[in-house]
Amino acid sequence: MTDVNVKTLCPLPWLHLSAHLDTSLRICCNTDTTGFVKTDDGNNILLKDLSNLNEYFNLNFFKDIRAKMLKALRPKTCQKCYEIEDAGGHSVRQSYLDIYHDDTIFLDSLKKTRSDGTITPKVQSLDFSLSNKCNLKCLMCSPYASYSIKNDWKKLKLDYYDTFTQDAFQNWKDLPNLESLTKLLSAHLKHVLTTGGEPFLNQTHFKLVEYLVESGHAHKIELTYHTNCTVYNGKLFKLWKNFKKINLHFSLDAVGDLNGYIRHKSTWAIIEKNIHYFLHHPKTNCEVHTTIQAINIFNLPELYEWMRTKPNLGNLPFHIWIDHPPWLHIDILPTQLKKLALVRILQYFKTIPDKEKDYHFEAYEQQIVSYLKRSLTSPQDKKNLEQFKQLIPQFEKIRSQKPIQELVPEISTILSS
After folding, report:
1. Which one of 16, 109, 196, 336 has the fewest CB atoms closer than 10 angstroms to its CB?
2. What global pTM score does this model have?
């Protein structure tokens, strides 16, 4: 890859197929609405309509992105990753480069890409956001990703797009081409990422896994999940033995009651029990993914320390910056509270022996420190602070939750101001 500018290149436009919660196709899971793949007529494409990979991957939408990357330009569609990198963080783009930088199929495809971005596609990576069926009501979530939140949002008169919510709940159930699509994709497939909703509740995913086993290619494929760790499925657990590796990303935002407050309806004892099973499966590789927000930023060292007690889990989570809802962003906090959070985290990192600071630790340490330092240069978001002060008590009332001040005393000052 010495002749390609890796500062702009991402492997995904060459080898990745991604479907959103409502089955509309997108370039990857890390883009906003600009990432939805468009036909040359400007229309979205649903997964059920996909039958020809060559036509799909050579739409003008894809060709333009690939051509720009090869010219060391930054496609607007991929701006989110570049912004994270400019702030000193480690982006999804960089993570996929780590995986595919020496992959022979990708490098060959890259070499044979025409100047206009045309390729002969060989899909190696699959990413399905399998519906909004979920058993939790996470505070930072919406009806788009958890259908069970819909009634709460109605009670609080929060706006959402009901058509998309219904499509996300229904469209994955009515996918007539799942088996034929699996056969079409399985030959070169190496990675399958499944999110949700909660993927371990989804029957379509079980069918996909069974089809992959039947294809005879499962032993070459890694399955990756984002799970809230509240669901254990014995049937799926047994099917995993047929695959090369199972990567489990545990969606955890705190320890104990605070995680239960943020991820409403979850129980910490059940989470720990399931994590024990996941960690001891012979094919699993596990890590924690944490959504950074105003109500968990002070308690991150407690989560980090809990992780150190678990075998083969790593010492730091992958930190996810919250964009929506903006009233949970740490920019609602005054400067002195953001400084307090940064000091606590830096002090904690000083207690970790150097022998425990591997590549991932250093990357994730840089993630959270750079994020907090960047936030310190931003003015306090007082408009969204007012929404935080209004909505937090309302959510607590309809969910019969204890006040957040009892779990995070630092929040008291902004709720009473």
Report:
1. 336
2. 0.87
The residue type found at 294 is A
Q: Decide: helix, strand or coil at residue 380.
A: coil
Cis ω before 89 (30° cut-off from 0): no
* 215, 217, 219, 222: CA torsion to nearest 10: -100
Whole-number Å distance between alpha carbons of 172 and 175: 6
| Secondary structure (3-state) at 193 | strand
Contacts 24+ apart (CB under 8 A), 5-9: 5/69, 5/72, 6/97, 6/101, 7/72, 8/68, 8/69, 8/72, 8/73, 8/74, 8/82, 9/69, 9/70, 9/97
AA letter at 191: H
Task: Provide CB contacts within 8 A for 108, sequence distance 6+.
Answer: none
Angle at 321 between CA 88 and CA 319, to 5 degrees: 75
Closest to 11 measured CA to CA, from 267, 191, 177, 143: 191
Integer Cα distance of 240 and 209 in angstroms: 9
Strand bridging mode 263-264 / 137-138: antiparallel
Give 102-116 pLDDT, tens digit per residue: 999 999 999 999 999
Q: How many residues does the chain have?
A: 417
Where is 263: in which H helix or E strand? Answer: strand 263-264
Which residues, 6 or more positions from 145, have their beta carbon under 8 angstroms from its beta carbon? 21, 129, 132, 134, 168, 196, 197
Considering only CA atoms, which of 140, 408, 138 is closest in space to residue 299?
A: 408
For residue range 41-99, list pLDDT tens digits in order.
888 899 988 889 999 999 999 999 999 999 999 999 999 898 888 877 788 899 899 88
- Type of residue numbered 68: K
* Tokens describing residue 326: 């903006």
DSSP 42: S
C-alpha span between 150 and 152 (Å, rounded): 6
Residues with Cβ within 8 Å of residue 60, at least 6 apart in sequence: 40
Please report the DSSP string for 287-341 in residue order. EEEEEE-TTTTTSHHHHHHHHHTSTTS-SSPEEEE--SSGGGSGGGS-HHHHHHH
